[in-house]
Every structure is written in structure tokens, then in C-alpha cells.
Design brief:
CATH superfamily of one domain in chain B: FAD/NAD(P)-binding domain
Radius of gyration of chain A: 32 Å
Number of strands of chain B: 23
Protein name (chain A): Geranylgeranyl transferase type-2 subunit alpha
Distance between the termini of chain A: 74 Å
Pfam families (chain A): PPTA
Structural class of chain B: alpha+beta
CATH class of one domain in chain B: Alpha Beta
Helix content of chain A: 40-55%
Oligomer: heterodimer
Largest sheet of chain A: 9 strands, mixed
Shape of chain A: globular
GO molecular function (chain A): Rab geranylgeranyltransferase activity
Catalytic activity (chain A): geranylgeranyl diphosphate + L-cysteinyl-[protein] = S-geranylgeranyl-L-cysteinyl-[protein] + diphosphate
CATH class of the largest domain in chain A: Mainly Beta
Keywords (chain A): Prenyltransferase, Repeat, Transferase
Number of helices of chain A: 20
Shape of chain B: globular
CATH architecture of the largest domain in chain A: Sandwich
CATH topology of one domain in chain B: FAD/NAD(P)-binding domain
Number of helices of chain B: 13
Number of domains of chain A: 4
Largest interface: A-B, 18 and 13 residues
Chain lengths: 714, 539
């Protein structure tokens, strides 16, 4: 039934197929004739039935039968009163037709749908259906058509969830290698748990029992994946906090933010982490949630300030998919020069979740009201107008970066990001149960791995260890907490990359996320990757802190919640293919992505949301190297955007170049106000493309390290 | 039987092969020779088919066990012409027959029993007997049902389910999680070895080592080794000390036995586990092969004792037989059932007529009204060496058959026991220990009360109603001018007997095929029917 390779038909078989088809053809044309003429006679129905018996996949014929039945019923009613018995016999005939079709192919979608349709009309007995299903499930215990239909029948018959659960138990003990049975079990248990049915409460008890059951399967055959999927579901039910939480913000709670209105901030006396230049007269406020949410707006978020500038703030979701939901949301506070007293404290207080409305994609409300406060100081303009990015070209060479002095740690007692997720009481029984269960699971799977070399077991252990670390980190200061197991987890992922090369990209992504979690888990390890850009004393440009995460084999970005404050980020010499998540780093002005594996401009889409970005290095990537973009489904396509409407080919027309090929680049760069771009070392970056870029981005001053001599426009 | 007029004359009188005795090996030979186009005469002095492989009503069984005394030499009339008549004598195959009746009930229903003489015996779905029945078409005369479960007696004296398949391991409650992993990965190892994939082959060196050493090398805990050795590979002798063990199971054989078990599970969709049992008892098998032989032209005469063998006066070679009716019948080849003594002039190798005896097996048949395991009708129970008492040398295997297999009246269970032994004392000791472990035996004189309060406590042992314990000699095949077939052996299935029979056939008829493919006729519904997806054996 399963695991059999598809064979190419032999010439004899092909001949047989052809013969069968030639026999069907006259029947089919006869049928179509009836269909076309809206003939619903007994004879016509018989032809249709014959056709379906031979080929149950013919959906037109099924639809014809539905129309015919409706027609016969409606017409008889008008002429003579139709008795219930004959209605019943009409529908029984339909059931018989489906059964004959099942005999031909019990995985025929059309036949199953038709049977559902007949039964939903309510004229037929449903008592036989479970017996019928038993026959089909005996033939093939994993037939998902039969499982689907079983759910339908169970609902129609009002069979209790407990009874159906028992059925899955029986099927599983027959043969536990059955995704459908495990899946149905998870669906039924979710319902039972939600309704708190007698015997299925508390959740902890039920989940522990289920865990014990699935352990039997996992240990009996660690290489069978069906049980592992169910196990993953249990873990998710155990660990996951249902309602979305605000986990991080910028500015952080209790912070003092120094801004200058026209650049030229003298940062030598201020903490570089909380000072920044403000050209537009606005500062961002970022809310970072535990999962994507919607409903963030001025009525769900209350911002109190001594000025009224905070009224009617517009919150924007930081996501590239236009869905209206996002994990990170941003608004911009206006600090118009004339209204402010320089150097005066401007305290602000933001309250989240005090009124309902912020909802996760699963429909759960943000149920934990949270507040954070910060103070903004506006610095008076100095005579020196030093706008970093405009004055001098940023150079990413190592010689320009200096290790942060120790004073940084001491003089910046700020929490670089505010941890808000410590809402779980670690004395509660639920918390203790969670911690204990996960610890047990870890011990168990260590034992399993000592018995059998099992990929999915390693993956599960890695996940469990990280979940354990996260639970243990609750209510611990993020300055001091270290992830206890991250080294082991990283080793597990390395091991998996080697032993399971076909999924190495997935393991690499997971590895990257864990590595970043480890790096950002406490201030000390994070500061090890923070560098000063150029020397404090040698130049007027100083005080910039750059987070350098180079040469770490990263294929994905994560732990964004710890990195919202970053203004300068160096991710060069990694294996990034996507920069998803970067869109939340609204302060980012300089970004180095050189020497990665970015394959398309679409992969750079998150950059479109970075309003402050001035300097971008995407040199030595693979843009244009792949003719077919296999990852596009993860990114955007022209179909999901209104790019066409403002895409004026003639405006950017360059001699002998089909600029329409550059739509992706146009789409990314048209809204960026870059002053500096490095794109050398990509297949796409030929001379014509560069000409095109200059046209798209008039703000550009340096391209590939060369200062542009722009000719004034005529 | 002395009324010679009651015997009809046999016609013709010349055959390619005359066989005396309708035991399973003789029946297979008759069937195979007939299928190969030979003319065969098949005689049996008994009024039933099967000889030592038959299933009999209770009283007949008791009588058969006790009557097997050497027959008094019949008055032999010297033959005329060039032939000499040599008396054919039999030997006693059963000794120390011990029949105990604690209740009149079984005897009252005597005819409703079909008791196997050679029990306990089962078929593995994938074993060669099943293949042969399918190939020869014999399966159409029989129906089978599953043995529902197997249990093995643990070191603590408790019976635990034998985790013999993936789903059995999953459901098992006595194994720890890590033990489950080890056991199932060992099964996978065996599977990998059998798939002739060079990488996963077990090394030749390991295959020659004792199985128990290999199991230890694979880090299997003692409890699992115990289960594999005695409940799956069905080892007879204690394997724990390979220096003193009489019959060390080699890894190669152990793996092959596991493979048989493994491929048996799921071969037929309507068989629950690895083991099946024929409805109406094991005696159906010889009968089935006889029917098959008859279809191919073999001539059958029951109740026909053979009084003498006819030998050439000058060369002393075999020419024919003289049957009880006095008729003389001639053939080129001759096969005698195991209880006949081949007269010494015809024995070239050794004058000792018992040279082919190769040990004894103690057998027992017990009747009760309560299952050993509540809710289970047909099951196998293994008592490995030392599990019953410290000096227990060989495994005691117990097969319980309920009334669904038509072996006994409804509401009763028959338990077959067997153990290999060197002498009667040793064998009886094993059987008695097993009987005592399984049953509560009513003290003689007190009425049977055990079954009345069984519902209150499921742990109450079944009450023994009737039992027969006996010691059976084992013999091997021999190929001479007159060949003999073997007695039932001590194993659970017929594989060894079948191999020996097949070999004998090839010696007798070197140019003939053992059941050519064409003999197979279409099976009807309700019989062994192996569909491409491995399904169906039904009734």
C-alpha cells in the first residue's frame, strides 16, 4: 500500500490502458451529450454510473449526478407529491454508485465528496457508514480519505470525542506507524482539553499520559516519524504560552534617549547605545511581540507624554507580507524643534494590552498588560554639522573597528533590551510541571540516543534542551543568565548537518538561531561582539557601536528582540540566504551583508522597511547567479505587490537594456535613501545595472567604494 | 481382524511404491510419488489416517498409546517359488503412559475431542509445511486459525507476553523503554541481515558463534536474551553455559529461526500472529496429503496390517509384502512407518534395529475448563530451562487450544505439553513440574470445585480434569532397500521432518521433482490464500 515505487508502465500495460480508454470514449461522449442537453432520464443516469464505475476520477460526472438528483427532486415535487420512500431510493442509488467507485479506487476524491454530499442531504441512514469505513481502514490503515470521512460521519452521528479517541487508540495499538491516527488523536484531544471534559482535566495529567503512550512508539521504532510528530504536538501543548506577549521594546524601559535634531551629536560624553542622530525629527518606538499579532493601534496602545504630539500615533506592522499582522510594530514620535526645550526631560509612558484588541493569528488576546517608560532629551544643535554617513564613506575593514573598552560595560548600566516576558510565576505548579516534564524528556531522549543513532531523536533533544533553557531563564536577569545547554545543542546540530546532508539547510538555520540566542543571552557575551567604529579621538566620527557577527556560518537571523537598538550591523562572511527579521531593527543605518549567499533582490525585501538605512553592502553575494529562484515562495513576487503601477520603464530606460528585467531591484531600491551601496561581486552587477541603480537612487554618493561624480541635471 | 474374508482383494498387485503407515512423512511421500506419476499403494493397519501424527478422540487416543505393544508374531507361511517371507514386527514407541482422570466429564464427551498425538505442534505462517501445502494444493482441504498469543515464563515464574513483533513491542508493558529500543533494533538487524545487503550482513565469524554470545555482544539485557532464545528461536537446552550445553544454538540457526518467526507475522492478513493451527487438529495434515495422493491415483487401504515382507530367496532383496488378507503385493520401493522394525537381513549398515532412535520426548495432554490466560483461547506458553525448577534441562512448551479449533467440546481447553529428555524420569519430572505450575490438581476423592469460584479471582489456576503423560521415542529417516520414516520430533513445527522427507524422496526417486509446480489446483475460498499483498487465510 505504501512505500512502493512508481513504475513506468510496460508496453503491454500501456496497451491495456489504451484499450480501456478507447472503450470509455464512446461512453463519455454519450454522457456529455446527456449533460449538455440537460437530460436526466434513468438511462442517462445509468450511462453516467457506468462511466464512474470505470473512472471514478471524472468529476464532471459526479457533478452531473448532483444536478440530476436536484432536478429530479424539484420536478417531481411540482408535479406530484413525491413520497419519502422514493426520495430515499434515489439517494440510496447514489450511495451505491459511490460504493462501486470505491471498489475501483477507494482513494477517489470525487466519490468521497459525492457520498458526503448525499449524506449531508439527510435522507439516508448513516448507520452503515462506520462499517464501510472499517472495511476501508482495514485495507489501508492510513487512508486519509477514510479518516477524513470518518470525522465527517462522527460529527454527523454525534459520536463523542471519547469514542473516536478510543478508535485512534485501537488503530495505534494495531500499528503505531500511522500519521492519520496520531493526527486525529491530536485533533480530538485538543477538543477534549478545551472543553475540559470529564477525565480530560487537568491538561497536565492528560498530556503526561499521552507522552507516555507516544514514548512506547518512539522507543520501539525511533526511525518511524509518525510518533515523533505527535510528540512534537504534545511538547507544543506543554510549553507554548497561548496568549501573545510583548517581549521587547525600543526604547527600553527606564532608558534615557538623547537625540539631536540635525545630526551632529557630540556622543563622546554620552552612551553610544542610547544616543543617535535624528534628521527627520522623529524617533521610532518599537514593540516586539512573542508572535505575529494584529490590532496594534492608537486605541490598544496608550502613549502618555507631557506633549500632545503622541495623540493619534500610527502604528505600522513591520512585515513584508502585507497581511496586517507582524511580530514587530513601529510608530514614530515627532519631536518638532520649535516645541521642545533642549535638554529638558521629556518622559513618556507606553501602556500595552490594557484594552483588548491585540490578537495573535490563532485568535488569542494579548492578556498581560505591560507598561514601559523612557525619557527623551533633545540635544541642542552644535555648530559642527557632522552627519556621519554624508561626510565620509563607511569602510567595513577590520582596521576601523576597535574592541569596546571596559568602561562601556560599566558606564552603560542600561538594559540593552527590556525583557518583558517574565510573567510566568516560577513558583506555580504549572511552571514546575513544565520544567520537570521537560527535564524528564531530556533524560529519556539522552537514553534513547545512547541506544540508537536517530536523527529525529537528536533534533528533538536539541529542541527540548533549548526549551529547558528558555524556561529556566524566566525571572533571571538577562545580564547574567547564561544558556546552560547551548553548546550541546550546537553540537547536536553540527552532528545532524553531517549525518543528514539532505536537510542540512534546515539544521543550519536552527544552528544559526541557537548561536544567536547564545550570543545575545547576556550582556557580556553580546559586548564581546560590539566594536567601536573608528577611534574615539582620531576623528569627529565616533561613538558608533557596531555589532559584528562575521564568520559565524549564520544562515538565518534571530534573537531580534535583543538587537532592536543596533544602528550598525556587520553580518559579512556568513551563509545568509534571507534576512527575514531584520525589518524590526528600525534604528539600523549601516548594514554589511557582503560575502553571503543572498540569491535575489527579493531576499532583501525587509530592507524596504528600514527607514534609517543609509549604508548597504551586499557585495560578493549570489544575486543573479541563479536563473530560477527556488526560494521565491518564501519571498515576494510581483504578483503580490503593486509594483507595476509605478514602474515606469521609460523613465529608467537605458540604451539596449531591457530594464524590465530589473523589476526586483527597482522594487527594493526605489524607496531606499541609500548614500552608499556596494554591490560588486554579484552576477547581476554589470555596468548597465550600475547605471540603472544611479537612476533609481539619486541619493547615492558612493557605489562600490567609488565616489560618484554626479552631473547636475540639465 | 482375523476374518481374512472381510479384506477385499487389492488390484493391481504390482506397484512402484508400497508405503505402510499414514503418518505425515509417509503421506507426503505418497502424495509426492503419485504427483510424480508413480503407482503407489498406501496401507495402514489402523482404522484412521495419520498414525503417530493423527488427532484422535479421547478414548481412542488412550487406547492407541497403550496398545502400541510389540505385535505377536503372526503365523508366517513360507512363500512359494523364489520368495522368502520375513515377519514384520513392530516396536513400542510410547512408554510410561500415565493417564489420570479427575472428572468424568471429558470421557463423556470423548468423541468431541480431536487430540493430537504429536502435540504441541503449530505451523509458522512462513514455514515450509505451509509452503508445501500451498504448492501441493493440500491447503484446500484445511482451514486454519491463529494462535492468539505467546507467553514465556520469566525468571520470577510469571508469564509475560512474548514481544514478537513491532506492535507487540509497542504494546508490551513489561519491557522498559530502552529495552524496547534494543529489542526492536535487534529485529531490524536480523531483517537487514536477511535482505542480503552486504553492508548489514552479520559477519561469518559471528554466525558461527553461539547465539547467546552474539546476543550478549549486541548488548541485549538477559531478560531479552531469554525471550529471544527460548520463546522466539525455541531453543530446547539451557544456552547459558555453552560448554556444558548439549545443543548449542548457533547464531546462524538462531537468526534463521527469528527470520522464520519474523516473516510469519503478517504473511496472511487474517492471521494475527506468527502461528496458526489447523481446525480439527494436526491430524488433518496427513489426511490432506493422503487425499491429494488419492486424487493423483494412489491406492488406499486402511485396517490392513502387513504380516510379512517378501524377499528374494537368493539375493535377499526386497520384492513385496504379504498383507493380513494373505494377498501378496509387489513393488520396487518400500517405505515403512517408524514403528515397524526393518528385518535384519535387509539392514546393511547395522544389525541393531534400534540404531535410528535418537532420544525421547515427553509429551502431555491436559484437559481443563479454564484458560491459562483469561480471555485468551489459543496460546503458546514456554517454560525455558530452569524456569520451573533448578535442574530443568530442557524447555517445556505448552500449547493451549480452545474449542474454536474443534479440538475439544465447547467450554473446555486442551493443553499439549512437550519436553525433550534423555530418559523417562527426566521427561516426566519436567512435565509434572509444568502441570503443577499451570493447574490446580484436585485431590483424589474430592469433587471438582475449582471451576465454581474462578470468576471471583482470575488468578485461580485452571483445574485439571484429565491428563495423559507419555514418553515417545524419536527415530530418524533411513534410506535402505526398505526406507523408514521418522517419528514426530520435539520441535513445534514440521520443518525438520519435512526436510528429512524431502531428502528421502530424492534418494528414492533421484530423477523426480518433489511436487512439480503443475500439481497445484485453484484453491477455493476459505483456505490458505496468499494474495500479492500477503493476505487471507480464512474461514
Amino acid at each position: 500500500m505504501h512505500g512502493r515505487a512508481r513504475k513506468t508502465p510496460t508496453p503491454q500495460e500501456e496497451k491495456a490502458f489504451a484499450l480501456k480508454a478507447s472503450k470509455l470514449r464512446p461512453l463519455q461522449s454519450q454522457f456529455l451529450q446527456f449533460h449538455h442537453n440537460k437530460t436526466y432520464t434513468k438511462e442517462a443516469l445509468e450511462v453516467c454510473a457506468k462511466l464512474l464505475e470505470a473512472n471514478p476520477e471524472y468529476l464532471t460526472a459526479w457533478n452531473y449526478r448532483k444536478v440530476a438528483v436536484e432536478h429530479i427532486l424539484s420536478h417531481s415535487e411540482t408535479e406530484t407529491e413525491i413520497d419519502p420512500e422514493s426520495i430515499k431510493s434515489i439517494f440510496s442509488e447514489e450511495l451505491r454508485v459511490t460504493e462501486r467507485a470505491f471498489a475501483q479506487n477507494y482513494k477517489s476524491y470525487g466519490a468521497w465528496y459525492h457520498r458526503k454530499w448525499v449524506l449531508s442531504k439527510g435522507h439516508s441512514s448513516i448507520d452503515r457508514e462506520l462499517q464501510l469505513l472499517e472495511v476501508f481502514l482495514k485495507k489501508d490503515t492510513r487512508n486519509f480519505h477514510a479518516w477524513n470521512y470518518r470525522r465527517f460521519v462522527a460529527a454527523l452521528k454525534n459520536r463523542s470525542d471519547e469514542e473516536e479517541l478510543q478508535f485512534t487508540t485501537d488503530m495505534i495499538s494495531d500499528n503505531f506507524s500511522n500519521y492519520s491516527a496520531w493526527h486525529n488523536r491530536s485533533v480530538l484531544l485538543s477538543q477534549l482539553l478545551e472543553k475540559k471534559v470529564q477525565g480530560y482535566f487537568p491538561k497536565e495529567k492528560v498530556l503526561t499520559e499521552e507522552c507516555n503512550l507516544v514514548h512506547q512508539a518512539l522507543f520501539t521504532d525511533p526511525d518511524d516519524q509518525s510518533g515523533w510528530f505527535y510528540h512534537l504536538w504534545i511538547l507544543d501543548r506543554m510549553v507554548k504560552v497561548e496568549s501573545p506577549l510583548l517581549v521587547s521594546t525600543w526604547p527600553p524601559h527606564g532608558s534615557s534617549i538623547n537625540v539631536s535634531v540635525k545630526g551632529c551629536l557630540d556622543k563622546s560624553t554620552l552612551s553610544p547605545m542610547t544616543s543617535f542622530d535624528l534628521n527627520t525629527g522623529t524617533i521610532p518606538v518599537i514593540l516586539y511581540f512573542s508572535e505575529a499579532v494584529e490590532g496594534v493601534n492608537s486605541s490598544t496602545i496608550n502613549v502618555e507624554s507631557i506633549y500632545d504630539a503622541t495623540q493619534d500615533l500610527i502604528w505600522t506592522p513591520l512585515s513584508t507580507n502585507n497581511s496586517g499582522s507582524a511580530q514587530a510594530w513601529v510608530t514614530y514620535l515627532n519631536f518638532l524643534e520649535e516645541k521642545f526645550h533642549f535638554l529638558q526631560a521629556n518622559p513618556l509612558k507606553v501602556s500595552v494590552g490594557h484594552s483588548q484588541g491585540i490578537v495573535s493569528l490563532n485568535g488569542f488576546h494579548c492578556a498581560h498588560p505591560t507598561e514601559f517608560e523612557f525619557t527623551v532629551y533633545v540635544q541642542p544643535p552644535t555648530s559642527q554639522h557632522t552627519d556621519l554617513q554624508c561626510l565620509e564613506m563607511i569602510s567595513w575593514g577590520d582596521e576601523n573597528f576597535h574592541i569596546c573598552e571596559t568602561h562601556l560595560k560599566e558606564s552603560s548600566p542600561i538594559k540593552f533590551s527590556y525583557q518583558l516576558e517574565n510573567n510566568e510565576d516560577n513558583e506555580s505548579t504549572t511552571y514546575k510541571w513544565k520544567a520537570e516534564t521537560i527535564a524528564n524528556e531530556i533524560a529519556l531522549f539522552r537514553e534513547l540516543l545512547s541506544e540508537a543513532n536517530c536523527k529525529i531523536g537528536k533534533l528533538t533533544l536539541a529542541r527540548l534542551l533549548m526549551a529547558h533553557d528558555v524556561i529556566m531563564s524566566y525571572n533571571k536577569s538577562s545580564d547574567t543568565y547564561k544558556l546552560a545547554h547551548s553548546e550541546e545543542v550546537l553540537e547536536l546540530y553540527c552532528d545532524l548537518m553531517n549525518s543528514d546532508p539532505s536537510h542540512s539547510q534546515f539544521y543550519k538555520d536552527e544552528y544559526s538561531l541557537v548561536l544567536l540566542q547564545q550570543l545575545t543571552s547576556n550582556l557580556e557575551s553580546l559586548l564581546r561582539h560590539c566594536y567601536h567604529y573608528r577611534d574615539l579621538s582620531s576623528s569627529s566620527i565616533h561613538g558608533h557601536i557596531c555589532l559584528r557577527l562575521c564568520n559565524l556560518s549564520l544562515s538565518r537571523i534571530g534573537s531580534i528582540k535583543q538587537l532592536l537598538w543596533i544602528q550598525m550591523l556587520d553580518l559579512s562572511h556568513n551563509q545568509l540566504r534571507s534576512i527575514e527579521g531584520l525589518e524590526a531593527m528600525q534604528l539600523l543605518s549601516c548594514l554589511n551583508l557582503s560575502h553571503n549567499q543572498i540569491g535575489t533582490f527579493s531576499a532583501l525585501e525587509p530592507l524596504k522597511l528600514l527607514k534609517a538605512l543609509k549604508v548597504l553592502n551586499v557585495s560578493y553575494n549570489e544575486i543573479g547567479a541563479h536563473s530560477v529562484n527556488t526560494r521565491r515562495y518564501l519571498c515576494s513576487s510581483p504578483l503580490s505587490h503593486t509594483v507595476g503601477s509605478d514602474w515606469n520603464f521609460s523613465e529608467f530606460a537605458i540604451d539596449s537594456v531591457d530594464v524590465a528585467n530589473y523589476w526586483e531591484a527597482f522594487f527594493i531600491f526605489k524607496d531606499l535613501k541609500l548614500t552608499q551601496l556596494d554591490i560588486i561581486g554579484n552576477v547581476v552587477a554589470d555596468e548597465k545595472f550600475k547605471v540603472f541603480l544611479l537612476k533609481v537612487m539619486p541619493t547615492l554618493k558612493w557605489l562600490d567604494g567609488v565616489e560618484l561624480q554626479r552631473h547636475p541635471k540639465p | 481382524m482375523d476374518d481374512t474374508l472381510s479384506y477385499p482383494p487389492i488390484d493391481p498387485i504390482n506397484f512402484d511404491l508400497i508405503i505402510v503407515g499414514t503418518g505425515l512423512p509417509e503421506s507426503i511421500l505418497a502424495s509426492a510419488a503419485s504427483a510424480a506419476g508413480k503407482t503407489v499403494l498406501h496401507l495402514d493397519p489402523n482404522p484412521f489416517y495419520g498414525a503417530h501424527f493423527s488427532s484422535l478422540p479421547l478414548q481412542d487416543l488412550a487406547a492407541f498409546l497403550q496398545s502400541q505393544s510389540p505385535s505377536p508374531p503372526p503365523s508366517s507361511a513360507p512363500s512359494d517359488g523364489n520368495l522368502t517371507a520375513v515377519e514384520l514386527t513392530t516396536r513400542r514407541m510410547y512408554s510410561d503412559v500415565e493417564i489420570t482422570s479427575h472428572s468424568p466429564e471429558p470421557l463423556e464427551h470423548s468423541r468431541q475431542f480431536n487430540l493430537d498425538l504429536a502435540g504441541p505442534r503449530v505451523l509458522f505462517c512462513a514455514d515450509s509445511a505451509v509452503d508445501l501445502m500451498l504448492k501441493s494444493g493440500t491447503s484446500q482441504y484445511m482451514e486454519f486459525k491463529s494462535v492468539d498469543a505467546s507467553f514465556v515464563c520469566g525468571g520470577d515464574g510469571k508469564l509475560v507476553t512474548v514481544p514478537d513483533s513491532r506492535s507487540a513491542i509497542f504494546k508490551d508493558t513489561s519491557l522498559g523503554l530502552a529495552e524496547k529500543t534494543r529489542l526492536s533494533s535487534f529485529f531490524k538487524l536480523v531483517e537487514g541481515h536477511l535482505k542480503s545487503d552486504d553492508e548489514r550482513k552479520i559477519s561469518a565469524e559471528d554466525l558461527e558463534s553461539p547465539f547467546v554470545a552474539f546476543l550478549s555482544k549486541m548488548r541485549l539485557p538477559p531478560k531479552i536474551q531469554w525471550i529471544i532464545l527460548y520463546a522466539l528461536a525455541m531453543a530446547d537446552y539451557d544456552q547459558s553455559d555453552t560448554d556444558v550445553c548439549k545443543d548449542v544454538l548457533k547464531t546462524r540457526d538462531g537468526i534463521n529461526r527469528l527470520a522464520l518467526y519474523h516473516s510469519s507475522v503478517g504473511r496472511f492478513s487474517n492471521a494475527l500472529g506468527a502461528l496458526i493451527y489447523p481446525i480439527y487438529g494436526q491430524g488433518e495434515l496427513p489426511q490432506g496429503f493422503c487425499r491429494r495422493a488419492a486424487v493423483k491415483g494412489c491406492l488406499y487401504v486402511l485396517r490392513m496390517p502387513v504380516n510379512a515382507l517378501l524377499l528374494d530367496k537368493f539375493s535377499g532383496s526386497y520384492k513385496g509384502v504379504k498383507v493380513a488378507s494373505g494377498q501378496e503385493l509387489f513393488s520396487h520401493q518400500m517405505v515403512l512407518g517408524p514403528s515397524f522394525i526393518v528385518p535384519s537381513p535387509l539392514l546393511k549398515s547395522s544389525p541393531d534395529s534400534l540404531q535410528d532412535v535418537r532420544g525421547k520426548v515427553a509429551r502431555g495432554i491436559c484437559i481443563t475448563k479454564t484458560s491459562v490466560k483469561p480471555g485468551v483461547s489459543n496460546c503458546l506458553v514456554i517454560y525455558p530451562p530452569k524456569s520451573l525448577y533448578p535442574e530443568q534441562v530442557t524447555s517445556v512448551r505448552v500449547l493451549q487450544i480452545g474449542s474454536s479449533l474443534a479440538g475439544c467440546p465447547s467450554g473446555m481447553f486442551v493443553l499439549y505439553l512437550s519436553a525433550l529428555c534423555d530418559d523417562a524420569n527426566q521427561g516426566k519430572k519436567s512435565l509434572h513440574a509444568a502441570v503443577n505450575a499451570i493447574f490446580s490438581i484436585p485431590i483424589s476423592g474430592t469433587p471438582d470445585h475449582g471451576s465454581t469460584d474462578e470468576s471471583e479471582n482470575t488468578q485461580v489456576k485452571p483445574t485439571l480434569l484429565w491428563s495423559a503423560l507419555y514418553i515417545q521415542e524419536m527415530t530418524t529417516c533411513s534410506f535402505e532397500s526398505i526406507s523408514s520414516t521418522p517419528m514426530p520430533d520435539g520441535s513445534l513445527n514440521y520443518n525438520d521432518i519435512l526436510d528429512a522427507t524431502k531428502e528421502l524422496f530424492h534418494k528414492m526417486f533421484p530423477d523426480e521433482e518433489f511436487f512439480p509446480e503443475t500439481t497445484f489446483s485453484e484453491p477455493e475460498d476459505g483456505e490458505l490464500d496468499e494474495s500479492p499483498n500477503g493476505e487471507s487465510l480464512d474461514s
